[in-house]
Amino acid sequence: MERCSWANTGNELLKEYHDQEWGMPCHDERKLFELLSLEIMQAGLSWQTVLNKRAAFKTAFADFDVKQVQNFQAKLPQLMVNKAIIRNQRKLLAIINNAQVVVKLAAAGTCFNDYMWQFVDYQPIVHQYQTHTEVPSTNGLAKKISQQMKRDGFQFAGPVITYSFLQAAGLINDHVVTCFRHQH
To answer: Most buried of the four, 40, 44, 79, 180, by CB within 10 Å?
Structure first.
């Protein structure tokens, strides 16, 4: 079975993530928030590091329930000493802030799923890359979405993090054409 080259490292966690999640259209609110939060945590680190700590993040962030996470400001000292997670204060504060933004959007009548998927007209963008080296780290769409997210109050949502999030959540399918997940 052919996979994207980055998933052929021999690491089972990475392979499982590639085979079962990455690039698969996600419409689950909690899962979308989790993926955005994990992409924030990944900035400057390897995805493997984040995957290794994913279970600890789920525990620390109430399974990424935005209604709970929006009130985690008081839990910041606990998070900062939790050795099971990445303890970057700016990233932790961004996740708390972003939960607050998602809750405000919902209160105004826009769920996070609709907020994100509207940018791609509710249809995944399927690229036709032959090799993983062709896959960009960002593009014009991610830059546009990043700018809008920042205007709406999101933090740590630059164009590279945004593009990675779009890939992870399946709004953009960047599986190479030879990968068994390219056409799902």
So the answer is: 40
16 as an active site residue: the answer is: no
Please state the pTM of the whole predicted model. Answer: 0.96
What pLDDT score does 139 carry?
97
| Per-residue CA distances from 36 to 5, 39, 58 (Å) | 23, 5, 13
Confidence of residue 183 (pLDDT cuts 50, 70, 90): confident
| 8-state DSSP, 172 | E
103/1 Cα distance (integer angstroms): 41
The active-site residue out of 29, 34, 39, 115 is: 39
Contacts of 51-58 with CB under 8 Å at 24 or more apart are: 51/13, 51/14, 51/17, 52/13, 53/84, 53/85, 53/86, 56/82, 56/84, 56/85, 57/85, 58/34
47 catalytic? Reply is yes
Q: Residue 71: beta bridge partners?
A: none
- Reference 169, options 16, 12, 39, 14; nearest CA is 39
Cα 179 to chain centroid, rounded: 21
